[in-house]
Specification:
The structure holds two protein chains of two kinds.
Chain A: H1 3-20, H2 28-38, H3 40-57, H4 59-62, H5 80-85, H6 111-147, H7 149-164, H8 167-182, H9 191-206, H10 213-224, H11 226-239, H12 243-250, H13 255-291, H14 303-312, H15 319-346
Helix pairs in contact in A: 2-15, 3-6, 3-15, 6-7, 6-10, 6-11, 6-13, 6-15, 8-10, 11-13, 12-13, 13-14, 13-15, 14-15
Chain B: H1 2-29, H2 43-52, H3 59-67, H4 96-131, H5 136-150, H6 153-167, H7 179-209, H8 212-219, H9 224-253, H10 255-261, H11 267-276, H12 280-308
Classes of the chains: A mainly alpha, B mainly alpha.
Chain lengths: 354, 315
């Protein structure tokens, strides 16, 4: 049986089953929500994300110790069971003690607590990346696609240029610039001072004093929006010639109203999907930055900096790299499952596509 | 076609100019100079060094000197236009070109290795999943694919060392030069991309299989293998080919983490340390080189497109 035949059969069955029932009034979002809830992997992903969110918000209550709290007498203290499970002969050289569930790091800080606090870096990065991509990309793409002509040409040329930048190298350079220019103490009244103050507020909001999160958000945000802009523009271009847009223009609707009321609801689905599927990318960009030492400022823990510290002691203390890696991978799995589910739910034709 | 290539090449000029200006501006906006050391050098020496490298010139002049539009007063380092990327401030005896010559082949080899892993693993997985849709093979392939996109290379590198080098002793822990030292880094770098290729191949293959010309080919009585390889796979490969260009560029620029984990003497480490050292020519040169590379990779894909799909024409 070919795919079409199968689809036709399913349609026929559906029609037979639904013939007696009252016709349901439904809309795209209710339908999509129902499909999403039925997708077990996506639901599992969503639950994991919510759990992580809770762990992150209530890190002070959940984590056994503070993330910067440690005693160098207890460096690399490891519980007995871990030394048995992990490869090598850890029991012959580590300080064995049950004070830390997953062991302590090179400064005697609790690895579990630091991994939990790492959620406060990764989740906001994913969220802010997605929001910037959504807002800037959508506005940019809508303007470009709707007005077309010269405006479109210039705006898309700018996106083309941005695409030609080796993104990772640009982010690295920008992070170095932000950190050195705005990092130190600044004189009041200068732009650097303002940035510093905003940065402090952001860090305090996230509960990561001195983490330098604003700069990471900026670095990721600046390079996050181009894909969404292109996608939105393409969708608008194909939609704006449709009759219903012509009709609303005919009755005198303003451009803004047409875009917001008629075009946006029709293009938001694929864009939401693409933004969700990009969240793991933003998270791994931050992990990468912290890994090379241009991300969060110590002692703030990020999974990237934890893994980087762990790699230095890979041979002797494999637990240092293992647990942050597991946390990162679980998060990435969750977002990928949710993104895939969202895509299948919003556009069933796209099932199994890239 | 010829006109399209020419136009794309011409478009590279303003793009690269823009990139060079932004990069130059960002480099010089970072406070501090290349000769600031912990042990402070005497002012006269710094002045002389600055004079020697033309750093005492106004900023716009430094830019035009670097690009080769004007002559550096000392005349020693001609500009990018002549293919000379200037001196490296931190290792005084070497030019940036020397540095590229020594370290670029390493990163490129790693990138090619990763691309081989990505295609060699991704395409068969995708085809297998499509041909046996909704079977165990399909779920297994797509499971591997979701594993590939979810496990970051930052994680994969150390975990692979832990597993295959330190526990099983199959591969050397780190280093560069021998064949078995390339395998783990290439896999760690390429697995994520192979997942993307696998999913794309599967989707594209599923679509192609339901096309009319596949039915025609079957109706002609061709063997299933000929139908699949010559008719289906070739066409299913077109969307895959479009992402190979940007993917290869991303792999080569993405080698930094892997280089650090496996102690590979590639470009990554030098780029990062040269930002810290305010070694402007190295930073500028690397970014420009990679930008050219990125644009060229995309153009190559556009051209390859025409050969893969005769329906596509550029005007």
């Amino acid at each position: 049986m070919t795919t079409q035949e199968r689809a036709a059969q399913r349609l026929a069955e559906g029609a037979a089953a639904g013939a007696g029932a009252q016709q349901r009034v439904t809309n795209l979002w209710v339908d999509a929500g129902r499909r999403l809830v039925r997708n077990r992997a996506a639901v599992a992903g969503g639950i994991i994300i919510i759990l992580l969110l809770f762990l992150g918000v209530f890190a002070e209550q959940v984590a056994p110790y503070g993330y910067a709290e440690g005693d160098s007498d207890e460096n690399y203290m490891t519980p007995l069971w871990l030394t048995k499970v992990l490869p090598g002969h850890m029991e012959s050289y580590v300080i064995i003690g049950d004070k830390f569930i997953l062991g302590a790091d090179y400064l005697g800080r609790d690895l579990l607590s630091r991994t939990i606090y790492g959620i406060r870096v990764s989740l906001p990065v994913g969220l802010v990346g997605a929001l910037t991509a959504l807002i800037i990309g959508l506005v940019y793409g809508c303007i470009s696609g709707y007005y077309g002509g010269k405006v479109d040409n210039i705006m898309m040329r700018i996106v083309d240029i941005m695409y030609a930048f080796p993104t990772m190298l640009l982010i690295i350079l920008m992070m170095a610039f932000f950190k050195t220019t705005f990092g130190g103490p600044q004189e009041p009244g200068t732009p650097g001072y303002t940035f510093n103050q905003v940065n402090k507020v952001v860090d305090r909001l996230l509960g990561l004093e001195g983490g330098g999160m604003l700069f990471i958000f900026m670095g990721i945000g600046i390079t996050a929006w181009m894909g969404t802009a292109r996608l939105a523009r393409g969708q608008i271009l194909s939609l704006k010639e449709k009759e219903f847009i012509e009709a609303s223009r005919m009755i005198g609707a303003a451009d803004l109203r047409i875009i917001v009321r008629h075009l946006l609801p029709n293009i938001i689905g694929p864009i939401l999907v693409s933004v969700t599927l990009n969240i793991p990318g933003y998270i791994s960009t931050e992990v990468f930055l912290s890994f090379i030492g241009l991300g969060v400022d110590p002692p703030t823990p990020s999974w990237g900096s934890l893994i980087s510290e762990g790699v230095r002691a890979l041979r002797s203390y494999p637990n240092q790299v293992l647990f942050p890696s597991i946390a990162l991978s679980i998060t990435m799995f969750a977002f990928n499952f949710l993104g895939d589910g969202l895509r299948d739910a919003l556009d069933p034709r796209m099932r199994g596509r890239f | 076609m010829g006109r399209y290539i020419v136009r794309s090449l011409l478009w590279m000029i303003p793009v690269l100019l823009f990139i060079s200006i932004v990069t130059f501006g960002l480099c010089h906006a970072v406070p501090g100079g290349p000769f600031d050391r912990e042990k402070v050098l005497p002012a006269e020496i710094i002045a002389n060094l600055n004079k020697h490298y033309g750093l005492d010139q106004p900023l716009w002049k430094q830019y035009t000197d670097y690009m080769g539009f004007t002559r550096n007063p000392s005349g020693e380092y001609a500009g990018v236009l002549e293919g000379k990327f200037g001196p490296s401030f931190s290792s005084r005896s070497r030019t940036v070109n020397d540095m590229f010559r020594a370290h670029l082949p390493v990163s490129a080899t790693l990138g090619v290795g990763a691309l081989i892993v990505a295609v060699g693993l991704g395409v068969p997985l995708g085809v297998l999943a499509a041909l046996k849709q909704n079977s165990v093979w399909d779920y297994l392939s797509m499971g591997i694919a979701i594993f590939g996109v979810s496990v970051s290379r930052v994680v994969l590198g150390p975990v692979m060392i832990l597993l295959f080098a330190l526990t099983l002793h199959w591969f050397p822990v780190a280093g560069w030069g021998r064949f078995e030292q390339i395998i783990m880094p290439a896999v760690a770098l390429g697995l994520g991309s192979s997942a993307i290729i696998g999913r794309l191949t599967r989707a594209s293959m599923l679509q192609v299989i339901s096309e009319d010309y596949i039915r025609t080919a079957r109706a002609k009585g061709l063997s299933e293998r000929v139908v699949m390889v010559r008719h289906a796979l070739k066409n299913a490969f077109i969307p895959v080919a479009t992402i190979l260009g940007p993917m290869f560029a991303a792999l080569v620029t993405g080698t930094f983490v892997i280089e650090q984990v496996f102690a590979i003497p590639g470009m990554g480490k030098y780029f990062i340390t040269s930002i810290g050292n305010r070694d402007y020519p190295v930073v500028m040169g690397t970014i420009l080189l990679y930008a050219v590379f990125l644009i060229a990779a995309n153009l190559a894909v556009d051209i390859a497109y025409v050969f893969l799909d005769p329906r596509i024409q550029y005007s």
